[in-house]
Automatic annotation (TrEMBL):
Keywords: Cell outer membrane, Membrane, Signal
Cellular-component GO terms for this entry: cell outer membrane
CDD domains: SusD (cd08977)
Main location: membrane
Subcellular location(s) of the protein: Cell outer membrane
Protein name: RagB/SusD family nutrient uptake outer membrane protein
């Protein structure tokens, strides 16, 4: 059941002033919702929190453009969009810093999401209501605020730290990456202390204690605080078999057939209903729009193919077969390429309308090297794509926790052979052998070799799930020429990458301009822009 997306914050009703006298304009509108008339009851508090969740359904977040940022700016994918400027923003060719779809939409929607969370955190404490319920609502707002600030640090490595509701006169000022991480830690600590381990069916999709701990673990990892991250992730692993676990069928993580399951730690509750528009009004769209941009076109696909996979991923998948001799089904579920059908002859669904992939590539003159992102597409239940896919997007899932925990273990002194136990859980679910019995067995010889193998294991399990950019930053591959050379070999877009500049995006110019006092910006531009 999908519940969260159904609840929207009540909009403000405007009084039309056209043709009205000045005295009439002074009359108080009894229908207007304001801070004075709202925030009175437990129902108001819950409605306010639901308004915070609604910003998960905005173009600047995972609904649409954030996938472009994380998937296509990393070495996993690239943009083939005919919209040149859109593609340039995945190739580190940043010219117009206010380009909406490439930069400003993220900044705008993250901070409006933060504004809504701040309203809850400022107003709900004064409401007379059950204290447990109150703290659960405050914890959800804290979790979501931390989620938005996490994205701000990943993209810009700085921002403005706003912790209270502000009016239009607010002047943004610099907050460092570390100041933002510190606030993320505070918000997630409060969230994990006050959120339940699970919700009942009526509230599925809300943040849980496990979601807060998983995100806090990721925040610690990005700061290389591996000992603290290990502690948070351990909590989830200790609950394997009760709250969390790997699904037998991994593909269920990317369809709507088994949502909010034991592997999903935090999911955006998408639906295919079209209410029209994605703005601030109550007529929002709730569909997952990424599939339209990533799916191939042609007679049956009806996608745009604006985002494609890099071929190296296909080649890496094909380097190792399952213990039963077949190719890794994670490739089948993740990427469409010319010889897709040849590599998976026992799979009934080749492509939309069961057309063979090789035939389709030939008919449409596609380059053999072209690879389309298949993960999350809707070919499992229909023969087209549009803006309204109904499958949930899993921001965090348990397979990621296992791989992250293995990284934390080896980074804090655990032997690679012991850390490999958690990697093997993911590999064996995919039908592969344990690392010690695989062609990669030498990776158990040292921490350094194990980490390099773990980097590839994460790519194969988690490709196109939005975490590769964070991984590249954490591993330092964006900070050295050796790292950039490694990425260039997989993704030619990194030929444009400038060390010390492109691991962070430019602050939108308009945001810098509005922060000026006596022509001196209080929110300064990132280095080298």
């Amino acid at each position: 059941m999908k519940k969260i997306y159904r609840f929207l914050f009540a909009g403000v009703l405007a009084l039309c002033a056209t043709g009205c006298s000045s005295s009439l304009l002074d009359i108080e509108n009894p229908n207007e919702v304001t801070n004075t008339t709202f925030w009175k009851s437990a129902d108001d508090a819950k409605a306010g929190v639901n308004a915070c969740y609604s910003f998960l359904y905005k173009e600047g977040t995972w609904m649409r453009w954030l996938s472009f940022r994380y998937d296509l700016s990393s070495d996993e994918g690239w943009s083939s969009s005919p919209w040149i400027e859109l593609g340039d923003w995945t190739r580190f060719l940043y010219n117009n810093y206010d380009f909406y779809e490439g930069n400003k939409v993220h900044w705008e929607h993250f901070y409006v999401g933060i504004f809504r969370c701040n309203q809850v955190l400022a107003n709900v404490p004064a409401i007379e209501m059950d204290e447990v319920q109150k703290n659960q609502l405050l914890a959800q707002a804290s979790f979501l605020r931390a989620l938005w600030y996490f994205q701000i640090n990943l993209l810009w490595e700085k921002g403005t730290l706003v912790l209270e509701p502000q009016n239009a006169d607010y002047i943004p000022k610099d907050a460092s990456e570390q100041e933002i991480w510190d606030q993320i830690e505070k918000d997630l600590t409060f969230a994990m202390e006050n959120l339940p381990e699970a919700w009942d069916a009526a509230d599925l999709g809300r943040a849980t204690k496990g979601a807060a701990k998983a995100l806090l673990g990721k925040a610690y990892m990005q700061q290389h605080k591996y000992d603290r991250a290990k502690e948070q992730l351990q909590w989830l692993i200790d609950r394997e078999g009760s709250l969390y676990g790997l699904l037998d069928n991994r593909e269920d993580n990317f369809t709507d057939l088994n949502e909010n399951n034991q592997e999903g730690i935090f999911e955006i509750q998408f639906d295919d209903q079209n209410k029209g528009g994605t703005g601030n009004d109550a007529s929002m769209a709730f569909g997952f729009q990424r599939t339209q941009f990533y799916a191939p076109g042609g007679t049956h696909g009806t996608g745009w193919g604006d985002g494609k996979a890099r071929r190296w991923l296909v080649d890496e998948f094909l380097k190792e077969r399952r213990v039963d001799g077949r190719n890794d089904l994670r490739l089948y579920n993740s990427i469409l390429y010319k010889h897709f059908g040849d590599d998976f002859p026992d799979q009934s669904k080749k492509y939309y309308a069961n057309e063979d992939a090789s035939q389709w590539f030939d008919e449409w003159g596609q380059d053999t090297e072209d690879c389309y992102i298949r993960k999350y597409n809707t070919s499992y239940y229909r023969e087209r794509e549009d803006y309204f896919a109904r499958n949930n997007y899993r921001i965090m899932r348990y397979a990621d926790v296992l791989l992250s925990y293995a990284e934390c273990l080896v980074e804090t002194g655990t032997l690679a052979s012991d850390a490999a136990v958690y990697v093997d859980k993911v590999r064996e679910r995919a039908g592969l052998s344990k690392l010690k019995d695989s062609r990669w067995k030498d990776c158990l010889s040292s921490k350094e070799v194990f980490i390099k193998r773990l980097q590839m294991e994460r790519a194969l399990e988690l490709c196109f799930e939005g975490w590769r950019w964070a991984d590249l930053k954490r591993w330092g591959l964006l900070d050295s020429q050796a790292g950039i050379d490694e990425l260039k070999a997989r993704d030619k877009d990194f030929n444009n990458f400038v060390i010390g500049k492109h691991k962070r995006m430019p602050i939108p110019t308009s945001e810098v301009e509005i922060s000026k006092i006596d022509d001196v910006p209080q929110l300064t531009q990132n280095p080298n822009y």
